[in-house]
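Hi there, hope your week has been kind to you so far. For a while now I've been wondering how a particular protein folds. I'm sending you its amino acid sequence along with the backbone structure tokens. Could you read through the record and tell me how the tokens relate to the sequence? Take your time with it, there's no hurry, and the full record follows here.
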Amino acid sequence: MSTNNTTIAVAVAASAVALGVGYVLGTRIEANKHWNDEPKICDTILDHVGNTPLVRINRIAKEEGVDCEILCKCEFFNAGGSVKDRIGKRMVMDAEKEGRIKKGDVLIEPTSGNTGIGLALASAVLGYKMVISLPKKMSDEKVNVLKALGAIVKRTPTDAPCVPDKDVRDGIDGQPYSHIGKANKIMNELNQAKPGQAHILDQYANKSNPLAHIEGTAAELLRQCDGKIDAVVVSAGTGGTIAGIAYKLKKHLPNVKVIGVDPYGSILAETGANKIINNSNGDSHVYPGDTSFPANEQNKGKAEFGYQVEGIGYDFIPEVLEGVPGVNRADGQEKGKSSKLIDYWVKTQDREGFMMARRLMRSEGLLCGGSCGTAMAGAIIACKHFKWGKDKRVVVLLADSTRNYMTKFLKDEWMEKYGFTPTADEPQYTPHDDLATLAKQSKELCDLNCKDTWVEQHAYESSK
């Protein structure tokens, strides 16, 4: 890596490193092309989308016995807190440029939250009304951010299928009740009331989705890494991120390995020809039924398995994942598949993903979301599977921040409720041992609540 093209900055956290608590030294590799330039004044917050930093993973790689270099693309540095800011900005600005939308129109989007936030951010700045349809399992933090940006949020059942006739109960097709079905119904009703006012930009098929990553994310990676990337690992939602990055990287680096990460319960991972590298039940989406997981999650097939992680996985293959013709569709690509763009897949479970997300916070100081833990867990599996050594560089995309999940996996109580806490022989993400040691040296740390402190304060004030 040349020092001419890559600026190195050391990010040092002031936590108790000697105790192994909290943050550790990390190396951040080029946040943007002109790192040392004077800060510029942005015309709008949308100028702060893209040019996110790479951070080298230090402790977790060593703990897992992985020798290759792992770099994380920290997309939570985008203005709205996620990788989806890139497509939110691009879809609105492209639609405006093409004359599809005009100021004051209503934009509607079915989303798991982050694309909605990206679109709502762009709409707030550029002058559009925003309506979001959002499955019930998505966090209240996302809803509150959307509302703060002026969006109207319609909640939908989590298990309603995204495609027609996928789930028929009592003879009723559930698709119209999904976030996709509801978005279409809202658009039709608004346009009946006032023709031409409402639009769905449709992240699942919109060419601006992969283009944002072809011309943005992937181009940044090539520049930041001086063209030295052996593998890239990305969790998949709509698939526009991984498919856009894959298309660009493979043009410049034909030997790069692109690895998708997909939760059990989703069907995005392509089956056949050993495409799924870690499935103990064969090359399929069926949950392996590991006995270390909660009993109600064991041995479930794809039809009934639900997963807690947000923002990734679907029950259909979006067009942007298989490749939009003329944009990121590889030569010879079969419809409904992504094999020409994505080389391998890793299937993941909620527990390993959420535990890894907590470890990324404590061990590396990366305040990232649950799907980021899923991506890193998948990367560790892939590194071990392929036995990549010190000469290999693997880039992992961290899609969003922990801001969206303050009342979910960030809470120890939530993790315990769903059976996601580590056993004694697994890497810990809370400093239990450190607390036990320090409590022996400080009586105050034997009880962490405030009631005794209040009693002491009251007694002190009464004595005056």
User: Anything to note?
Assistant: The domain at 8-79+207-412 is CATH 3.40.50.1100 (Rossmann fold). The first helix runs from residue 59 to 63.
